[in-house]
Specification:
Layout lengths: L3 E2 L3 E5 L5 H8 L2 H4 L9 H15 L6 E8 L5 E11 L4 E8 L8 H16 L4 E6 L4 H9 L3 E12 L2 E11 H5 L7
Parallel strand pairs: 5-6
Antiparallel strand pairs: 1-2, 2-3, 3-4, 4-5, 6-8, 7-8
């Protein structure tokens, strides 16, 4: 599979050795505070990467998880994920996670843009969406900057460590993406 290049980062296929870099962020409480998982043990980080590799072999492939690599250092600093949720309805979902040392640098916005482009160009989808915890202002901002519209709020949608959480739903349609002045990240 080819790589997808942005301004600061590129996305490439995940390999098993990446579990060490995955663990560097997935073991941090601050990274997973809005998630139902984590902080990860080494074994959980290894199992996550192995599952990504296993999923990449499925036909038809519905899950694409990419390593986020900073171009200047070649460090693996996060993961971007694209899931085809319905081939019939041509819809998919994006997700991303970035090591906190790289927060606030526009990297998540760049990743989200590359994932949206991947969904519309490579997968020929009609609708792409993402969800985030309403308390995660950074992620809400990323999704808005990517051209997504906040479509609604799912109440008590996900059980996390401190109880049930709501999820904000953001989406973008193929024709909206096509009319953006620059659909690239």
């Amino acid at each position: 599979m080819r790589t997808f290049k942005g301004k600061q980062i590129y996305l490439r296929q995940m390999k098993f050795a990446d579990w060490v870099d995955v663990h560097a962020y997935a073991s941090k409480e601050i990274v997973c505070r809005f998630q139902p998982w984590g902080p990860n043990t080494e074994e959980q980080s290894q199992a996550f990467v192995q599952q990504i590799i296993d999923d990449s072999q499925r036909i038809p492939r519905k899950r694409f998880v990419f390593a986020i690599v900073e171009q200047s250092s070649e460090n693996m600093i996060g993961a971007g994920e694209f899931n085809i949720r319905s081939a019939t309805n041509r819809s998919g979902e994006i997700a991303y996670i970035v090591h906190p040392d790289y927060w606030g640098k526009g990297i998540a916005t760049e990743v989200a843009g590359l994932l949206v482009n991947f969904g519309f160009i490579e997968c020929k989808l009609h609708r792409i969406y993402a969800t985030c915890d309403p308390r995660n202002i950074g992620s809400s901002t990323v999704l808005s900057r990517t051209g997504m519209t906040q479509e609604g709020r799912l109440r008590d949608e996900l059980r996390i460590k401190d109880g049930w959480r709501d999820s904000l739903v953001f989406g973008i349609l193929e024709h909206e993406w096509g009319t953006m002045s620059s659909p690239n990240a």
